[in-house]
Amino acid sequence: MIRTLFLSALLTIPLCLPAAAQAQTAALREVTMALDWTLNTNHIGLVVAKEKGFYADAGLAVDLLPYSDTSSTALLAAGIADFAYLTSLGFMGAKAGGADIVALWATMQHETGRLVYNSDNTAITRPADLTGKTYAGFGSNWEAALIGTMIENDGGDATYDTVTLGTGAYEALAAGAVDFTLEVATWEGVNGTLLGRKQSSFAYSDYGIPDQQNGYIGARSETLAQAPDLVAAFMQATQAGYVWAADHPKEAARLLIATGDFPNPALVEGSLDMIAAGGYLRDGDTAVGSIDPERFEKMATFLFDTNVLTGAGGVPLEWPGTVSDWYDQSWMGQ
């Protein structure tokens, strides 16, 4: 296999590069970035920075590691990747469990998730109505804490049936086989609209769930301490990529479509339009990628208080007293 890959790589390289090009290539520092899922619009700034040459201009040759069975959080913590794209829950769970990693960035400035149900289901008009209904889920403690809190804060009883279906939840909901599920508005929500599905939703933050940021980019603490220049170069180029995507969503969509395997280009285009129009990447004058200390702590507190963050044997982890050292944005030069 190694020999085949080596020969394939040779076929893609010009036999003779100009001396200047060889020198430039040799001068680039190789960096690995692990993705949390298959390539999608959350990763748009990484793709833009790579394709528009922002990383190369910063002296970096960035390899976006494809999603695998090993989580991006685990790859980062083990030192297999230099940086990683992390979900909020994935990062906080690992950090609370003792992983020596730090968040450098938050992609989405507001919660993109929402609870959805079929609009023609007249039995559901508010979260309290979900009592006794059937939920199509994904098998995490976060879901139970989230849904239970929403129902109880609306005056209902947090008892409902759960069937774990994974991504099959969306087809099950559309078919009326279940009553509700959770989705990411900027992806599954856009896809549902393209498919003509009539669905309504409840926003988490309207029922007691903190309006969290999501899509962290993290590094190991030792990388931040030993190579601050590398962190700054990578993160500033990444920020430039996301800023460009926020300013040019249609062009960014074309770049992403050309880079990945997307059977439905309209989904990518619709997703990036929603991300840009909804202020998910840029919130007013707040710098793209900024972590809000207050909202960061509120979400961490919620996850600890609801026993979502657990250690060995499922034992709930104790609040560390502060989470202010869980993130670092000194690379911004602020």
UniProtKB/TrEMBL annotation:
Keywords tagged on the record: Iron, Metal-binding, Pyridoxal phosphate, Signal, Thiamine biosynthesis, Transferase
Biological process (GO) annotations?
A: thiamine biosynthetic process
Signal sequence range: 1-23
Q: Does the keyword Mitochondrion apply?
A: no
What reactions does this protein catalyze? N(6)-(pyridoxal phosphate)-L-lysyl-[4-amino-5-hydroxymethyl-2-methylpyrimidine phosphate synthase] + L-histidyl-[4-amino-5-hydroxymethyl-2-methylpyrimidine phosphate synthase] + 2 Fe(3+) + 4 H2O = L-lysyl-[4-amino-5-hydroxymethyl-2-methylpyrimidine phosphate synthase] + (2S)-2-amino-5-hydroxy-4-oxopentanoyl-[4-amino-5-hydroxymethyl-2-methylpyrimidine phosphate synthase] + 4-amino-2-methyl-5-(phosphooxymethyl)pyrimidine + 3-oxopropanoate + 2 Fe(2+) + 2 H(+)
| Known pathway | Cofactor biosynthesis; thiamine diphosphate biosynthesis
In the record, what terms sit under GO molecular function? metal ion binding; transferase activity
Check the record and name the SUPFAM superfamilies matching this protein. Periplasmic binding protein-like II
Q: Which residues cross the membrane?
A: none
Q: Which InterPro entries match?
A: NMT1/THI5, SsuA/THI5
Name the Pfam families for this protein. Answer: NMT1
Ranges where the SsuA/THI5-like domain occurs: 40-252
Describe its function: Responsible for the formation of the pyrimidine heterocycle in the thiamine biosynthesis pathway. Catalyzes the formation of hydroxymethylpyrimidine phosphate (HMP-P) from histidine and pyridoxal phosphate (PLP). The protein uses PLP and the active site histidine to form HMP-P, generating an inactive enzyme. The enzyme can only undergo a single turnover, which suggests it is a suicide enzyme.
User: What family does the entry list?
Assistant: Belongs to the NMT1/THI5 family.
Assembly and partners?
Homodimer.
Q: What is the protein name stated in its UniProt record? A: Thiamine pyrimidine synthase
Query: What is the taxonomic lineage of the source species?
Result: Bacteria, Pseudomonadati, Pseudomonadota, Alphaproteobacteria, Rhodobacterales
